[in-house]
Amino acid sequence: HVIDIRNIGLVGAVELAPRDGATGARAYDAFLGCYEDGVLVRQTGDTLALAPPLIITEAQIDQLVGTLRTILNRID
Q1: Does pLDDT of 76 surpass 90?
Q2: CA 4 to CA 25: how far, in whole Å?
Q3: Is 76 helix (H, G, I), strand (E, B) or coil?
Q4: What is the tens place of the pLDDT at every residue in 15-61?
Q5: Contact assessment for residue 16 and residue 28, using Cβ atoms and an 8 Å cutoff
Q6: Residue 72 DSSP code
Q7: DSSP one-letter string for 7-60
Q8: Residue 24 burial (CB < 10 Å; 0-12/13-18/19+)?
């Protein structure tokens, strides 16, 4: 359901295709899934915004990307 991925350095955004008649619902489900798995992303409409701290370890980046991948594969 990913339409576009944008980034500058570690700051990024993942745009998701909207569900018919439920704009923002898919991104909200992804936001909740990430939050429940310990990763905080922001949801704006059908876009997930990623803005990790400036001091971040490679393991934390792997956790962020891995959790997001898992959640996006899980949601419909």
Answers
A1: no
A2: 17
A3: coil
A4: 999 999 999 999 999 999 999 999 999 999 999 999 999 899 999 99
A5: no
A6: H
A7: EETTEEEEEEPPBTTBTTHHHHHHHHHHHHTT---EEETTEEEE---SS--HHH
A8: middle
